[in-house]
């Protein structure tokens, strides 16, 4: 596969800057900034990011992860999605075990974490109250994901983290007019380890690594490792 073009890399960096300046959703802007003022005691000395959180990772990635939104005291604090919260602890440990990350933990944006052949984005870029974006907020953010998909031209596997991530993935592939995408006539129901061939891209479903899922055993380390092991196989499939 061809390496990412320099123009695409520059455009991805420009998109990242654009995302961080977005103030399109008044409810989300108010909430992310309120959280940054009313900090948790454990983070009282931290300066919160309190802006939209862009995607990050390997711009030549063949595997793209799509989650729901930054956590109020995770990505909204650190400026990097899944960084500095329990969901990220679970996720990065699995990515490390499966060869997609150089270290098993990530607590801050400058802590040395590097993703290998993987890129992580969220369907909604601002932390939402109660982790529940409205449909209008989801739709407002959707063009960012569409543009990322176009620029991450090597992606062959999309790991949808949770039903919200799956819905956002499906909509993005349907509406982005990317070459080589062929969606099934009907969208299969989301479930863990679901595989949906979509032309040059395969969607793989995974339960979201939220504490609700990991603390109850609905999602175990072995289950998530199996998803990323399968993604590693599929990324080279033709």
Q: Into which percent range does the helicity of residues fall?
A: 25-40%
Order of strands side by side in the largest beta sheet?
1-3-2-4-6-5
Distance between the termini: 11 Å
Low-confidence segments:
none
How many strands, which pairing sense, and closed or not: the largest β-sheet?
A: 6 strands, mixed
In the CATH hierarchy, the third-tier topology is known as: Uracil-DNA Glycosylase, subunit E
Query: Topology as H/E string?
Result: HHEEHHEHEHEEHH
Overall spatial form: globular
Question: Can you tell me the CATH architecture?
Answer: 3-Layer(aba) Sandwich
What structural class do the secondary elements suggest? alpha/beta
Radius of gyration: 17 Å
Oligomer: single chain
Q: Report the β-strand fraction as a percent range.
A: 5-15%
What value does the average pLDDT take?
95
Write down the CATH class: Alpha Beta
Going by CATH, the homologous superfamily would be Uracil-DNA glycosylase-like domain
Number of discrete helical segments: 8
Number of domains: 1
């Amino acid at each position: 596969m061809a390496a990412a073009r320099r123009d695409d890399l520059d455009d991805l960096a420009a998109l990242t800057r654009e995302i961080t300046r977005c103030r399109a959703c008044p409810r989300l802007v108010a909430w992310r900034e309120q959280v940054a003022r009313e900090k948790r005691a454990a983070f009282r000395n931290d300066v919160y990011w309190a802006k939209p959180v862009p995607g990050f990772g390997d711009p030549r990635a063949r595997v793209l992860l799509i989650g729901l939104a930054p956590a109020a005291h995770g990505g909204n604090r650190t400026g990097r999605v899944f960084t500095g919260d329990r969901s990220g602890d679970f996720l990065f440990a699995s990515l490390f075990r499966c060869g997609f990350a150089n270290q098993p933990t990530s607590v801050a944006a400058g802590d040395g974490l590097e993703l290998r052949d993987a890129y992580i984005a969220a369907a909604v870029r601002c932390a939402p109250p109660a982790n529940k974006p409205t449909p209008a907020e989801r739709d407002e953010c959707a063009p960012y994901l569409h543009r990322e998909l176009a620029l991450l031209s090597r992606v062959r596997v999309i790991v949808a983290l949770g039903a919200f991530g799956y819905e956002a993935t499906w909509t993005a592939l349907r509406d982005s007019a990317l070459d080589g995408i062929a969606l099934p006539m009907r969208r299969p129901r989301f479930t863990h380890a679901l595989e949906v061939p979509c032309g040059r891209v395969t969607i793989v479903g995974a339960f979201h690594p939220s504490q609700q899922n990991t603390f109850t055993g609905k999602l175990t380390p072995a289950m998530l490792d199996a998803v990323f092991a399968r993604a590693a196989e599929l990324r080279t499939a033709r």
